Amino acid sequence: MEFVSAVSDNTTVILSIILGAAVLVISYVINLKAKEENVQSLETDTIAPKEAVDHATTSKHKKKHQNEKWNQKLSKQTYTHSWMVTSLKGHTGQVTDIDFSPNGKFLVTCAEDRAVFIWSTKDFASKEHKNMRHNIEFDHASHICWSPDSKAFVINRAAENVLEVYKVTRRTDGWISAVSKAITFPKQFSEEMVGIGVAVSGRYIMSCSAANQLVVWDLKGAVLATVDTCLLHTYRAKVSPCGRFIVASGFAPDVKVWEVVFARTGEFK
After folding, report:
1. Integer CA distances (angstroms), 34 to 20, 27, 41, 45, 130, in order
2. pLDDT single digits (tens) 115-124
3. From the record, what ranges are coiled-coil (predicted)?
4. Which CATH topology does 187-268 take?
5. Cβ atoms of 121 and 107 closer than 8 Å
C-alpha cells in the first residue's frame, strides 16, 4: 500500500511538472508572437509617413509640371481673328476698365497693377504701340472714363472708393506730354463702386455704389444730389450719351431712370 501511494504521489508530481511546463511554453509562444506583431506595427508606422511624404512630393511636382506645361501652351498660343487689329501689352495685372476718348484719338486702360495706360489709336495697326503710363499712388483704378473734351479722365480709387480727376497735357504734335492729378473728391462711399460717368455737357459727374447710393457731383467735387436707387443691390449705373439721363440696374427687376436738369443760368435744379 505504501508503494502504491508513493507511485501515485510521484505520478501527480510528474503531471504537475508537465502541466506547468506546458503553460510556460504556451505563455512564451504567445509573448513571442505579440512582440513580432508589435515590431511589424512599428515598421508599418515608420514606412507609412515616408510613403505619404513621397506621395505628397510626387503630387506637388506633378502639379508644378502641369502648371508649367499649361503656361508653355498659353505662351505658344496666338489668338487670331479676321477683325483683330492688335493686342496691346503693357499691364501686368488684371485690367479693370477701358474707355475711348470722345475725339477717338486715345484709349485709356487701368489695371490692378496700379498702372493707367493711354494708347494712341492711330498706332493700333503698327508694330510698336505708342503709350503713356501713369501710376496711381498706393492704389489702383477700378473704373475710368474720359472727360467730354478728351483733356482729362476720371478714376475711382479701388481701395479708398474716392473719385480723382487727372489732367492730360498734350504737346504741339498732339501726343501726350504729361498726366497729373488735378483733384480728389471727398469720400462718400463705403461699398464697392459700380459705375462712374461724365455728362457730355461737362456739367456733372455721376458715381454709384453697390449699396444703392448714387451721387451727382459738379466738376469741382461738390455734391449736387444724392439718390437712393432702391434696387436692394445696385449692379450698374450709366450716364446717357446726351447727358440728360442717369440709369441704374440691380437686384430688383426694375431699371431706374432719372433726368438731370439744369436751369438756363447753369444752376442744378
Report:
1. 21, 11, 11, 17, 81
2. 999 999 999 9
3. none
4. Thrombin, subunit H (2.40.10)
5. yes
